[in-house]
User: What shape does this take?
Amino acid sequence: SAPYSYKVKNATIIHPTPIEFIAYINHAKYIITDSFHGTIFAINFNKNFIALKRNNDTDKNSENQRFYSLLQKLNLLDYFLGKNEQYDINKIKAIDYNLINLKLNLLREQSINFLNQSLKDSKHE
Assistant: This one.
């Protein structure tokens, strides 16, 4: 029903609007994504997720480092899987977001402090 969708073999590929994208994530029970932004939204909405690598770490155009950076800070590296890794979604443990949210709040606070300090420093130059 999305305005941007098309059929491929037996599947429907949906390109949701931004509002629909957020609604899909908000209402999802579990998210499997290869998108960095999909991963961020999953974490912000406290959803169980698996982030799949699009490329090998050594590929020239790999963007895996930003996944590593974020997921390592939140102790979520176990949820970042290579595209050829085998996994059983039923055996992947649920994410306890109590500690994750505390870490996220600390990271947000550090970011805001950094931005505020940078703005103050730039005014004095």
Q: What stands out?
A: The longest strand covers residues 4-8.
